[in-house]
Design brief:
With 73 residues, the protein is mainly α. It contains 3 helices and no strands. It has helices at residues 10-22, 27-43, 49-63.
Length: 73
C-alpha cells in the first residue's frame, strides 16, 4: 500500500490523536477509520451507524477466523 502526504486542519489532527489514544489507534489510523466510516455512510445513507459499525466488527471477526455458527431456535 502506498502512502500520500496531505495537509489537514490541526484541530482535526488533535481530535484524531485524542480519540486514537482512547481507542488504541495511531493518529493516522484514526483518521483512516473516520474516512472509511464517512465513505461507507455516504455510500449507504439509509443505514444506521450501529448497523455499519456492527458490519465492520463482523468483517474483522471473519478475517480473524473468530466467527461462530449461529444456532437457530
Amino acid at each position: 500500500m502506498s502512502t500520500t502526504s496531505v495537509r489537514l486542519d490541526q484541530d482535526l489532527v488533535q481530535q484524531a490523536s485524542i480519540m486514537g489514544k482512547a481507542l488504541s489507534r495511531s493518529t493516522p489510523k484514526q483518521i483512516e477509520h473516520w474516512a472509511k466510516l464517512g465513505k461507507i455512510m455516504e455510500d449507504n445513507p439509509d443505514l444506521p451507524y450501529e448497523f455499519v459499525r456492527n458490519a465492520l466488527i463482523a468483517q474483522a471477526e471473519k478475517e480473524a477466523c473468530e466467527l461462530e455458527a449461529y444456532q437457530f431456535g
